[in-house]
Amino acid sequence: MINGLRTVAYPVKDLTAAKEWYTKVFGAAPYFDQPFYVGFSIGGFELGLIPDGTPGTTGSTVYWGVDDIEAEVARITALGANIHGAIQDVGESIKTVELADPFGNVLGLIYNPHFDLKAVR
């Protein structure tokens, strides 16, 4: 079952500068800070920065929360999606995957055992 929105990820060319800028914009320091990903907890949701990406105005990858990422990948691919990016363990028991829907869009799924539903506002 899809639980709802969890993470919005923005590609950036300069991770250090982007981390500093988003820290100022949201008034919050990152809770997850690695060379491959920086995550901020914003109002119970996550804003993520991914280095070496190509920023653009055509959209960001939105990750929908799931309780069992493998089962959801199997279910959604059976409905016609294709694997766009394999399931990855990104650290601290968090897993992500990107699927290509039948219409050319990216559908991101995330399993994050640290997500605090009580913090959603």
Automatic annotation (TrEMBL):
Check the record and name the Pfam families matching this protein: Glyoxalase
Q: Which ranges carry the VOC domain?
A: 4-112
Q: Which domain of life is it from?
A: Bacteria
The record's section on Gene3D superfamilies has:
2,3-Dihydroxybiphenyl 1,2-Dioxygenase, domain 1
Q: Which PROSITE patterns match?
A: VOC
The family database entries (InterPro entries) matched by this protein are listed as:
Anthracycline_SecMetBiosynth (IPR052164), Glyas_Bleomycin-R_OHBP_Dase (IPR029068), Glyas_Fos-R_dOase_dom (IPR004360), VOC_core (IPR037523)
Which protein are we looking at? Answer: VOC family protein
Please report the organism this UniProt entry assigns to the protein.
Duganella margarita
